[in-house]
């Protein structure tokens, strides 16, 4: 259980932060960048939900679950795998969480017409914010992949972020009247 009685500790004043393992790393460390960008993704999902809480119950419910999963993912990344006994079982993203995102994608995508062009970010407010969430989640994924090339990273966590950007794309189309209000790219339109 998390207990936060005091918000500032001053322990990070030297430019370091503690991981779940107790190890301290510079705040510019790639692992910190990765889970910080996961947190940023979560904040954008919060913005999306400002526009889905009324009338978009199905997608808002999924986004609520995603926000919780993103905290799980942050905890996963904040606790590097180690042989050291941490005194607790570290929280890890599971294949079940990846499968739940895949099911949500498939369910929403079933109602969409096939694309014949790339989609520009826009349309409804919720859709535009979902495109922002998509791009931030892709940045988080790129950081996680780079981290995985240097340190051990839970493969399910990387898969989750990969599927999440796909979910945001499909959900953005769903919220644009099932793609009818998508803003499509017209190659060379302004030449």
Structure, explained:
The structure is a single chain. With 191 residues, this protein is mainly α. It has a single domain, classed as Cobalamin adenosyltransferase-like (Hypothetical Protein Ta1238, Chain: A, Up-down Bundle), CATH 1.20.1200.10. It is 53% helix and 5% strand. It is built from 5 helices and 4 strands; from the N terminus they run ββαααβααβ. A hairpin with a 5-residue loop joins β1 and β2 (24-26). α1 runs antiparallel to α2 (57-78) and α3 (95-109) packs parallel to α5 (155-175).
- Please, how many domains? 1
- From the 3D coordinates, which CATH architecture would you assign? Up-down Bundle
Tally of helical segments: 5
Q: Which series of helices and strands comes N to C?
A: EEHHHEHHE
Report the CATH topology name: Hypothetical Protein Ta1238, Chain: A
CATH superfamily: Cobalamin adenosyltransferase-like
CATH class: Mainly Alpha
The helix fraction, in percent, is: 40-55%
Q: Please tell me the overall pLDDT.
A: 92
Overall, the morphology is elongated
Task: Extract low-pLDDT stretches.
Answer: none
Structural class: mainly alpha
Major sheet attributes: 2 strands, antiparallel
| Widest beta sheet: strand line-up | 1-2
């Amino acid at each position: 259980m998390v207990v936060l009685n005091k918000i500032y500790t001053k322990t990070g004043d030297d430019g370091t932060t503690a991981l779940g393992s107790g190890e301290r790393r510079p705040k510019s460390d790639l692992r910190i960048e990765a889970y910080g960008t996961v947190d940023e993704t979560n904040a954008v999902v919060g913005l999306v939900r400002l526009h889905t809480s009324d009338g978009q119950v199905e997608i808002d419910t999924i986004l609520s679950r995603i926000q919780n999963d993103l905290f799980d993912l942050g905890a996963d990344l904040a606790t590097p795998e180690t042989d050291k006994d941490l005194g607790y079982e570290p929280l890890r993203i599971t294949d079940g969480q990846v499968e739940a995102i895949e099911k949500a994608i498939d369910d929403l995508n079933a109602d969409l017409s096939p694309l014949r062009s790339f989609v520009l970010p826009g349309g409804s407010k919720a859709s535009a914010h979902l495109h922002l969430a998509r791009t931030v989640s892709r940045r988080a994924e790129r950081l996680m992949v780079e981290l995985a090339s240097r340190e051990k990273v839970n493969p399910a966590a990387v898969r989750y972020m990969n599927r999440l950007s796909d979910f945001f794309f499909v959900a953005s189309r769903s919220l644009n009247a099932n793609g009818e209000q998508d803003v499509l790219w017209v190659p060379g339109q302004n030449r």
